[in-house]
Each structure stands twice: as C-alpha cells, then as structure tokens.
Amino acid sequence: MQFSDEYIGVITNNFWGHEFWVYDHGVEEKVAKNFPSGFIKQREEQLYIKYETNILGEVPRSLKCKWKSAGETYSLINVPPKWNDRTECYTLNFYG
Description:
- It is a single chain.
- By secondary structure, this protein is mostly beta strands.
- A hairpin with a 2-residue loop joins strand 4 (62-69) and strand 5.
- The radius of gyration is 19 Å and the shape is elongated.
- Helix content is 4%, strand content 38%.
- The chain has one domain (11-91).
- The N and C termini lie far apart (49 Å).
- It has one helix at residues 29-32; strands at residues 11-13, 19-23, 45-52, 62-69, 72-77, 82-84, 89-91.
C-alpha cells in the first residue's frame, strides 16, 4: 500500500526506459501543493539511474547513478572504454 510503513517508493522511467528515479514515501508535488505547508510530506528523489544506449553502435553505452544517504549526495559514473585499433572495438583495461 502506498501509505503504509512497508512502502519504500516509486520507480518510474522515461519513454525509452533509460532513466529511472526512486522516490521516498512522500506524495507528488502537485498533490502536496493542495495542503498547507508542512501538513503532508512531498516526495524526494532518493536514487537516479541513467543508462545511455548505443542505438547506432558508434559510441559505447554508459551508466550514471546518483543517490542520497545521510544528507549527502553520491555519484557513480562508469569508466568509459577506449578505442583499440588492434581489435577495432572499444575495450576496458582491467590491469591484468
């Protein structure tokens, strides 16, 4: 149930399915505006994931994440692969 203690949030995505948001148990801004300030909690973004695809095959895919914990915001971005002339493809160096 949306307003129970077990409810942890909402996951939504855009039309292409490449961006995802996870929210806390608050309500949408348009709903919160109908109540006096502080009466009902407006939802806050807790996690954001962006996955960029490679439709034409010209660039590698990438992944970005951003989340909040204990009042701080953290970000992760994948290491971009580099073009390898010998193999003629993008590669990652795992150092052995």
